[in-house]
Amino acid sequence: MFIGLMSGTSVDAIDAVLVDFNSQQIDLKATYSHPWTPELRAALLRLGQQTQANSTLHEIAQLDVLTGEMFADACLNLLRQAQVTPQQIHAIGSPGQTIFHAPTLSPPYTWQLGNPNVIAEITGIPTVAEFRRRDMAAGGQGAPLASAFHHAYLHDFKENRVVVNIGGIANITVIPADTRQKVLGFDTGPGNALLDVWSDLHLGHSFDNSGSWAASGQIQAQLLQSWLQDDYFRKLPPKTTGRDYFNLNWLEKNPLDKYLPVDIQATLTALTATSIAQAILAYSPQRVLVCGGGVHNSFLMKQLQQQLPCVVESTAQHGIDPDWMEAMCFAWMAKQRLALQFNQLPEVTGARHPTVLGAIFV
User: Fold this and answer.
1) Domains of the chain, CATH where assigned
2) Number of Cβ within a 10 Å radius of residue 112
3) Cα angle 234-237-242, degrees, rounded to a multiple of 5
């Protein structure tokens, strides 16, 4: 059995899963959602938005250890809940908490917190980490990494599919039915990140439950079009982005005073749906499978379905719980790493060659 961890750009909780792999099947044995302390969450969100200008090496180094301790606590709580001992676990797959992702700088780099030495020491379980750095060392973007997992478990020989993960940032995986065609994947732009920060700012809630607040507003077409003119949406893949770009600073580039806060929330939801739909339409899939927290945003899902001429449904309809997809992915990536099997798609990340990602800490 393997443990997979995930804390995305929303920094809403640490997802921990216990997974067993049998042949081509994946068995989700147990799940646990570990809350961040308010102080640590606030520090990570602030760091993700202001990394370059307002952080110190001392602060980042301390947060690296504290985040590692939180990840270890999530693993131990998962095991206690499942009544499983650390000795029964082959490895933990930990992608870390991304605070800055800069694949286009020279030299490019990516930085994740959550010291894997700390995780391995506290849990006593081998920990596989630093997946993104290895891909970037091979010339890749370091993301999205879930595309290899999507292809392994959601490919269908009868139809072309696109898998959409709507976390803080949204990304897609294009999976042709014909295995001779390349799998593609990239970040489409903001997922929940801007929705969450705007909801927190104006309602004091960390997210807009079911998109109900946004649904009560009016989409501002002119504002939406101005946002869609951002250069990121015009870039060709491979491409990745993060909260360090799509954040409150990005929002405030446009004057927002003349709009009601609820209308901005409605328009931000339209931005997420439209940027995802525009990316998908280029590939004409027969089915779109959605995972991540965005699958629970009814207003967002309705807009996405309206803009796509195909079936749009949750990955739950195909045997993978949408809330635990990414954590399961990193359990799989740890398994692949221990077996010395490829766990990355260079056609997705832009790397020069297939690579076995991850460093092992024991």
Assistant:
1) 2-141+324-361 (3.30.420.40), 146-318 (3.30.420.40)
2) 23
3) 80
